Amino acid sequence: MNYDFLIVGAGFAGAVCAERLAASGKRVLVVDKRNHIGGNAYDREDENGVLIHPYGPHIFHTNSKRIFEYLSGFTDWRFYEHRVKAYVDGDLYPIPINRTTINKLYGLDLSEQDTIAFLESVREAREVNTTSEDVVLSSVGPDLCDKFFRGYTRKQWGLDLSELSAGVAARIPTRSNDDDRYFTDTFQFMPAHGYTAMFEKMLDSPNIDVRLSTDYDVVKANIECGHVVYTGPIDAYFGYRFGKLPYRSLHFQHQHLSDVERFQTTGTINYPNDHEYTRITEFKHLTGQQHQGTSIVKEYPRAEGEPYYPIPRKENEALFMRYSELAETVTDVTFVGRLAQYRYYNMDQVVGAALKAVETLV
């Protein structure tokens, strides 16, 4: 068949583009090399009937009413505010760092104003925050940096804080009050029936065909289409002409505990200084599911494997810009998404980028 658009990838970027284009009357083909839709946000029940996220926890949050209302057309929501604790020196502390964290760690009883003064007394001022180390030291000082950030960053990114762009650490605030929510966005919800069910509704259109377990490089010569929307790695599209863009990958160790109804006190616990894994997530916190057992996942960062996180460094951004300039010369392809735009996007940011891309295409 002839299609108006061929979309490579059935994750957030691809599904949003497909839905919007189909709604405008375009014929769309979506291909994905995996055997399921949803990309890394795909969820499913494990063999014990617990809804899990095979590619690690995905918690939806956004300040954009437009994005929230758009996705609400394909799912009901469950209110959920994510909370994270960090295991440090044999105890658990709220992260992001707040007044509770500081009082418990140092045996203090600081008020909110006292906490502001404490942080001011320990911080190391920087004229310019160039690296993530600059951001953390200028916010919480060396001791809290070493306890909560340096080890975690080394595991997660394979780099020291001083080797990462400032934007990575800037994602994590420091609070002088007792707010222990990981996010403070206006809209914090989980899809009531899971992400996969939401994606199924997005792609449920007579104008959309979906082919799974299908490699774009293998089938592209046999598909006629007017335009390609590419959501995969931009360097792969161009055959790594300028070299490979660096990514961090992950290995997920899933485990079901049949005789434990609740494994940990919060959805995620970080391990900045202990163990090879960075964190453990227990899915029932996220989904609200009732089950006599529970399922958890441990995350082990890797240098090789599926590309999950673009590594934010100046030299990597410079390499991406070479690919971006090359992409601008290709008029029949639109590049959108975390891998195609080499950006450390949250889910809502991917949705926003896809909606913007479709507005241009339509």
Automatic annotation (TrEMBL):
Cofactor (UniProt): FAD
Pfam families registered for this protein in UniProt: GLF, NAD_binding_8
UniProt keyword annotations, A-Z: FAD, Flavoprotein, Isomerase
One term under GO cellular component: cytosol
Entries under InterPro entries matching the protein: UDP-GALP_mutase (IPR004379), UDP-GalPyranose_mutase_C (IPR015899)
Domain UDP-galactopyranose mutase C-terminal stretches: 147-344
Enzyme class: isomerase
Molecular functions (GO terms): flavin adenine dinucleotide binding; UDP-galactopyranose mutase activity
Coiled coil stretches, renumbered: none
Key word Iron present: no
Presence of the UniProt keyword Flavoprotein in the record: yes
Entry's EC annotation: 5.4.99.9
Family named by the database record: Belongs to the UDP-galactopyranose/dTDP-fucopyranose mutase family.
PANTHER family in alphabetical order: UDP-GALACTOPYRANOSE MUTASE
Protein name: UDP-galactopyranose mutase
Source species: Paraburkholderia youngii
Gene of this entry: glf
